[in-house]
Amino acid sequence: MSEPSHLRGTAASLGVAVGRARLVGWERRRCPRRQIEPAAVSAELARFASAVSSSGAEIEAAKRELTQKHGPTYAPILDVHLLMHGDALLVDAVSNVIREKRVNAEWALSEVTERLKKPLLEDPSSYFQERASDIDHVKEHLLRHLSGQQPRKLNVDGPTVIIARDLTPADAVHVLAPPTVGLVTEHGGGSSHTAILARTFGVAAVVGLGPLPTDIEDGDLVLVDGFSGEVTLDASPEQRRAAERRRDRFVAFLKAERPRNAVTQDGVSISVTANIELPTEVAAAVENAADGIGLYRTEFMCLDRREPPSEEDQLDLYRGVIRAMTPKRVVFRTFDWRGDKRLRLNGVAGQEDAWLETQIRAVLRASAEGPVALMFPMIATLTEFRAARARVDQCRAMLRDQSARLAPLPVGMMVEVPSAALLADRFAKDADFFAVGTNDLAQHALAVDRHHGHCVAGPLDPAVLTLLERAISAARAAEIPCSMCGGMAADPVSLGLALGLGYRHVSVPVGFVPLARAVIRNVDLEAAGQAAHDALECVSADEVRELLLERLEPSLGALWKAQGLV
Ligand code: PEP
Ligand code: MG
Known about the structure:
Number of strands: 16
Radius of gyration: 25 Å
Low-confidence stretches: 340-347, 453-457
Strand content: 5-15%
Helix content: 40-55%
Bound molecules: phosphoenolpyruvate, magnesium ion
CATH topology of the largest domain: TIM Barrel
Structural class: alpha/beta
Largest sheet: 8 strands, mixed
CATH superfamily of the largest domain: Phosphoenolpyruvate-binding domains
């Protein structure tokens, strides 16, 4: 390659990485059909069985390594791959094809996996697309074992950027450890397992770039911007130095920011809590001195499982998180099965109720450990919220009968469906607190898909701002706490507007906490309030953004520029 090329994807893990490319999983394995003699069928079946068992053993080993390094939380990510190794749908089906069509194992495997993927690929949601990649990952593993190849060892010195079409979670465990500093993938979304692992390992990541140039080679220089989602290949020396400066500045900035407060220019203290997806992220929340966990997306522990962990297992996990955060509060959100986070089993619908009860019981029991709250996602009607509350009361009564130790548990709701924002004043009479989800609120108010649209521009639309204003005003009038926990709070430009609208508590991805504090310290609430007032009168999200850049520039410009955020 000669010309620097800039590519853009989804920023999936904050940070800037400068490193040498290491291509992972790019060997396209072809699976030509080979007819075999009847007498050779049993040998072929045995060859396939042996590949299944050695591939399974390799994933088991990756799971052990993951557990050793990062505790038990992430192990279920690999369970889906292990499950497929013993799944009749895959293993028996491949054996049947070998037997019935008298073909080689590679071709049979390819035929069966394409068949299994077909219905998943017909559903455009990223959840089903990711499950289809799970099948591809298992196929790749099995093909490698059929070919007898060993995984390639990392053979580079110094900072490395992993370049992959997609990275299986099992491979991610191996390759995201040092010296890896960056990750670039053609496929995948910000909520994929691999993105979660990149955040866990503190690796700057850009995912879902689409087809990468075919001439990237091991050892090429790659710059990864986990803020903007930009990837630069074959950078010039100046570009490289600039990226290194940004990287070093960001690392130093994070270090320096950790102990600092979030008091605005006019002396108002803003609470900055962390959003977490998995319990191990709590360590980063503590390290970044977050004011608590404002949103614990508990459904992430269920991805790729056939059912949620048992009440006792959830209790253990929840207690661990609460103990780590005490005396700061942890807000548990009940499983949010909607959107792209559905479980892989079709039978989820019938089970949700029982699972919800198990979860509520676990949170109630964990409440004895330290300050907690519980909230329900996607509440659209008052009837729904009242039923949810009643459910908590029933569980509490049952547990009391069993003499469980319980503490008071505030019960709140996400305001993320436009109907809830519109009637926020009524909901505020029933809910102990609100947490406003700008991701879903924007998607449902504007009828856009949050996974494919402009998630950041969405909340800035004046219609969404009007809903946001309604929610905070209703909460204030009813004197209940109200936080903002969607992506708007984690956007350094729109955060000022959130404060201007009246929000005094924001909850942001755990890695964003120090940056949120820095933004807040530069905001003058009076100016932000005036900007919010004028933003409500704008005609489009673009106009709002322009207005914010102009109004907040005097106080935030230096910070924005230093971090390259705008
Ligand atoms: C939201 O919708 O803004 C939100 C915080 O919830 P999630 O992103 O988990 O849907
Ligand atoms: Mg939501």
